[in-house]
Design brief:
The complex is a heterodimer of chains A (350) and B (236). Chain A is mostly helical. Chain A has twelve helices and four strands, in the order H-H-H-H-H-E-E-E-H-H-H-H-E-H-H-H. In chain A, strand 2 and strand 3 form a beta hairpin. The radius of gyration of chain A is 22 Å and the shape is globular. Chain B has two domains: 155 residues, Rossmann fold; 64 residues, no CATH class. A six-stranded mixed β-sheet of chain B has the order 6-7-8-3-9-10, sandwiched between helices. A four-stranded antiparallel β-sheet of chain B has the order 2-1-4-5, covered by helices on one side. In chain B, a hairpin with a 2-residue loop joins strand 4 and strand 5. Classes of the chains: A mainly alpha (350), B alpha/beta (236). The interface between A and B is medium-sized, with 24 and 34 residues. The structure holds adenosine-5'-triphosphate and magnesium ion. Magnesium ion binds next to helix 1 of chain B.
């Protein structure tokens, strides 16, 4: 059928392009090697215990990015939109939890047994709230633009991001907000110089459970299959009897619920929130989604973990001021060398 | 009154008019072929019936009820199934999931299981490949899957857009045979085909479409005999 025609012999122009791109590749590879050697030297210097500790922090950080990245990737997968407001939905999750906790009478210093149930309820309510907000955003801001040129919904998404940040700014002001420190301080010793705390375990646990539930839903359930079908071919999905508006709304809901959960565990972990948190967290998570292969849920989870590691290694071995640079360098390297990401699609589109 | 009727349908792509006052009908037991050269409006006609396109004027009437304003996914659950041009499988899902998606609008588990059996009997190849991703099937296998997926809907009306495109003659033979069998079991078929001879041979009736107009209609045999049709579409 659609056999590719034998490639024509390279013309001189194409050859020149090849040579120069090979030179660029070499330069980049050398740079990467130099950085690699530097990193290894530092890691060697600090010893294995420190390394393992940084790894633990990396997994905890990465779990939060994974929760955000999954929503980015799901929405991109189904309507090819980068939902810039997604990072702010994450912040919103934290803000909602911050407002809910006092309503349940939760205060710092209470025993864990007393806070665990209200915390769970807070988590669920924040997730539902964020899901609802994202569905609303889709309905009023993106759906009317579904047949418009691609740039229109993209710019609208940036606008929605500013809108959400503006609302949170007006709600709680420009300052860092203290999020109650509710989780036990206990730490489990994993080895010399390496411990894992209840906080890390909570963050990782929430991310793992939600990711498993999500993947079961998407792989096994009829609605999950309808979501994947809609992502792969929207017209064909309609011809199967799938209501694509519902499926797209559901995708926004689930993605936002996970991001909202991410916001809550972020608050619990770092005990601090601010209205513009979603900007950088969103960009990092977006990088994670691209790194994993945009549109692929497992890719987003893996990408999130990797970005979390990159961040904690950069913070732990170099300086946190370098972290953004490092992460965007990763994004650029991925886009140059493997634009489809780690788990990018290997099957032809049609 | 026929099962499916189109009355004076006008359809536009932006400012370009693709259909100009099309009227046609499909009876409860018929195979009706729609033939015409490239760009005549055959695909557009099917897309209008299945609700992917909305006519500017005219109406589609199914089983006595107008489909105006009914969204595409509801039209499927009313019993109209459209196997679109170019197969449009879900490439990153296995064969079996593609087949089950064909039955998405149904809820009768035993019926779905029976139809899956029927599809596997018609196309044993699909059973062998049930776990393979649809995007990695050969062209012919993909076409079988597209038809199998349409059958999984157990539709009241089956519409197929060029089901034989790009297939080896022996497979074309098989597919036309399958269509006749399905029709004999009681499913009316609206068939769009480039392979006009074959289509007219199995069709009870046919319409000839030219730049958005129906320029001729009659029984399959009548059109096969017609000199104009022979000249324009049968390459005689
Ligand atoms: N998405 C579109 N945008 C603009 N014009 C379109 C679009 N799709 C179809 N057309 C035009 O509408 C007319 C009818 O197209 P249609 O696809 O229905 O033809 P067809 O009879 O199915 O042709 P073929 O045998 O080549 O499949 C053509 O002139 C085509 O160029
Ligand atoms: Mg066509």
């Amino acid at each position: 059928m659609e056999r590719p025609i034998a490639a024509p012999r390279a013309t001189p122009i194409r050859l020149r392009g090849l040579v120069s791109s090979r030179v660029v590749n070499t330069i980049v590879l050398v740079l990467v090697a130099v950085v690699g050697v530097l990193v290894i030297a530092r890691i060697w210097h600090r010893g294995p215990g420190y390394f393992a500790q940084i790894l633990v922090y990396g997994v905890a950080n990465g779990s939060i990015y994974a929760l955000i990245a999954i929503g980015y990737t799901m929405v991109y997968g189904i309507i090819e939109l980068i939902n810039f407001a997604h990072g702010d939905v994450f912040t919103l999750g934290g803000f909602v939890a911050l407002a809910l906790l006092p309503m349940f009478g939760v205060k710092e210093g209470q025993p864990t047994s007393a806070v665990i149930l209200p915390l769970l309820i807070t988590l669920v309510v924040s997730m539902l709230f964020c899901g609802g907000v994202n569905v609303l955003i889709e309905r009023i801001a993106y759906r009317p633009l579904r047949h418009a040129p691609r740039l229109a919904p993209l710019i609208t998404a940036v606008g929605m991001s500013f809108t959400l940040e503006g609302i949170m700014f007006l709600w709680r002001g420009p300052f860092f907000l203290h999020f109650p420190d509710l989780l036990p301080r206990a730490r489990i010793v994993l080895g010399p110089d390496t411990t894992i705390g209840a906080k890390e375990l909570t963050v990782i646990g929430v991310a793992v459970v939600l990711t498993i539930v999500l993947s079961l839903f998407v792989e096994r359930s009829k609605l999950g299959k309808a979501m994947r079908a809609t992502a792969q071919d929207r017209d064909a999905a309609q011809l199967m009897g799938i209501d694509i508006n519902t499926t797209i709304a559901l995708t926004f809901f689930i993605g936002a619920a996970l991001a909202g959960a991410g916001g809550v565990v972020f608050g619990l972990y770092f005990n601090s929130l601010s209205f513009d948190l979603g900007f950088s967290a969103g960009l990092f998570a977006f990088t994670a989604a691209v790194l994993g292969g945009i549109g692929n849920i497992y890719g987003a989870a893996i990408g999130g973990l990797l970005i979390g590691m990159v961040q904690s290694f950069s913070d732990g071995y170099f300086d946190s001021t370098w972290t953004q640079v490092v992460i965007f360098a990763v994004l650029i390297l991925v886009l140059v060398f493997r634009p489809t990401g780690i788990l990018g699609m290997r099957v032809p589109e049609k | 009154m026929a099962l499916l009727e189109l009355h004076g349908i006008d359809v536009f792509y932006g400012r370009v008019q693709a259909l100009r006052g099309i009227s046609l009908e499909l009876g409860a037991k018929e195979i009706v072929a729609l033939i015409g050269s490239n760009g005549a409006g055959k695909t557009t006609t099917l897309r209008t019936i299945s609700g992917l396109m909305h006519p500017a004027h005219g109406s589609v009437v199914f089983d006595g009820k107008p489909l105006t304003g009914v969204p595409a996914h509801r039209i499927v659950s009313l019993g109209i199934c459209h196997a679109p041009e170019g197969r449009r499988l879900f490439p990153r899902m296995p064969v079996i999931d593609n087949l089950y998606l064909g039955a998405y609008a149904r809820n009768d588990r035993p019926g779905i299981a029976a139809d899956l059996e029927r599809v596997f009997t018609l196309f044993p190849r699909l059973q062998e490949r049930r776990a393979q991703l649809a995007g990695t099937l050969s062209g012919g296998e993909q076409q079988m899957l597209a038809i199998g997926r349409a059958l999984m809907a157990r539709p009241k009306v089956l519409m197929l857009d060029e089901p034989s495109l790009g297939l080896a003659p022996i497979l074309v033979q098989l597919i036309f045979q399958v269509l006749q069998e399905i029709n004999a079991q009681g499913t009316p078929i609206l068939l769009v085909e480039q392979n006009a001879t074959k289509a007219l041979e199995i069709a009870h009736r046919a319409y000839v479409l030219e730049t958005g107009n129906i320029v001729m209609s009659g029984t399959g045999q009548e059109l096969l005999q017609s000199t104009e049709v022979q000249k324009a579409y049968l390459g005689v």
